[in-house]
Amino acid sequence: MRDKKNFFAGPSVLPLEVLEALQSDLLDYKGSGVSMIEASHRGEPFEGMYNETLSLLRELMNIPADYDIFFLGGGATLQFTMIPMNFLPPNGVADYIKSGTWANKATEDASKLGKVNLYYDGSDNKFTSLPEASSVKPSKNSSYLYLCSNETIGGIEWQDWPETGNVPLIADMSSDLLSRPVPVEKFSMIYGGVQKNLGPAGATLIIMKKEMLERQNKNLTAYMDYSLHAKNDGLYNTPPVFSIWAVKLVLEWIKKNGGAVGMEKRASLKSSIIYDTIDNSGGFITSPVDKAYRSKMNIVFRLQSEELEKKFLSEAKQHGMLGLKGHRSVGGLRASVYNSLPVEDVMALSDFMKEFQRANG
Ligand SMILES: *Cc1c(COP(=O)(O)O)cnc(C)c1O
Question: What structural domains does the chain harbor?
Answer without folding.
Answer: 16-256 (3.40.640.10), 259-360 (3.90.1150.10)
